[in-house]
Amino acid sequence: MIYVYGFTDPPGVTDHVLFPDAANPAHMTGIDDAPLAALNYGDVSAIISPTQSQRIATVDKNLWRHEEVLERLCSDRAVLPARFGTVLRDEQELRDVIAANERSFVANLARVRGKVELSARVLWDEERPAVVEQASSSGMSGQAYMLARLKEERELRAWRARAQALVDWIDAELAPLCSEHTQKILTSPRMLLTAAYLVERAQVQRFHDRLAVLATGNPVMSSSTPDATGAGLRFMCTGPWPPYSFVDVNVSLPDRPAKSETL
Amino acid sequence: MNKPISDDPFIERMIFESGGVQAFATELDHASSALPQHINADPEGVEKGLAKLVLTLIELIRRMLEHQALRRMEGGSLSDDEIERLGETFMRLEKRMEELKVAFHLEGEELNLNLGPLGDLM
Prior knowledge:
The complex is a heterodimer of chains A (about 260) and B (about 120). Helix content of chain A is about 30%, strand content about 20%. Chain A has about 260 residues and is an alpha+beta fold. In chain A, a hairpin with a 5-residue loop joins strand 7 (about 180-185) and strand 8 (about 190-200). The longest helix of chain A has about 35 residues, at about 140-175. Chain A is elongated, with a radius of gyration of 24 Å. Chain A starts with a strand and ends in a 22-residue tail after the last strand. Chain B has 4 helices and 1 strand, in the order H-E-H-H-H. Chain B has helices at about 10, 20-30, 45-75, 80-105; one strand at about 15-20. Strand 9 (about 235-240) of chain A pairs antiparallel with strand 1 of chain B, so a sheet runs across the interface.
């Protein structure tokens, strides 16, 4: 069986770093220290290593090896990362997968070429408005209950609107530096924003600088928050990562149930 | 050559941070604890899981109805009498839900479903 790291442009010039070579015994290895190899088909190259097991353990060591191989590839070519744990039966199956998806692979390689993913999370300090106390304990009238619920609903709406305004402000600053981005607002009451940005490698430093400016304060909250340093927002940005959030590689074949959405 | 895996390769990939990494770690721990690590397949666990799912759906419907009522209240299309009756009904439903949660040993648990990329149900 073969483990698939991802699909890339045809081999680059530095492949001796990745693949076994008599002249370079210090090459990189894959999961379980298996030797890496490239399987080329048309305009796509799959980066693989042999494996004995269909199920790769989801442990730090394996996850980071998958990551490191992809990062190494990203340094000199476009890469579509495969989902961690992607194992195919044999080379023929892999060729069939590439043949079935070649056009979308090539199009998506062009989309991410020269770009990396930066991930950003932003915490805020605004408490979620409190929920009306349990009605059961008090002898509340129906009308009083509804009025309390209405008040709560309005406070929640205002709270969400403030979150949206902050996200719009962050977005307006960061979106011009990327070609695409994803965002999730309030995945938990404190997690204002979880976002991924597809950024030209050369723009990473500018992205960092822009974040540093954002973290010093914002126009939305600065008037209402006495805390001048960061005005209640905390930023964390990691990367550069392979473009995990921007590609969803389909390794299913037409005659087999789909494992994931097509690209 | 493989890079040695450092103590925390994630920290190594941190390119910007303001306000303390600990705050993020705490928040993410909190968020991941809301997700089931695995599905409990013992008979009692299944029963509890099913009860939780059913109660979650009932709670969702209750909140949707409540939302609808609040909207109509804001729109001014409900009389004081209707508001009073609706309020009493919702209060009674909420109380009944609390009793059911106790009956299924779900007291204090947040009834919610994580729908993956779609976020939370409620």
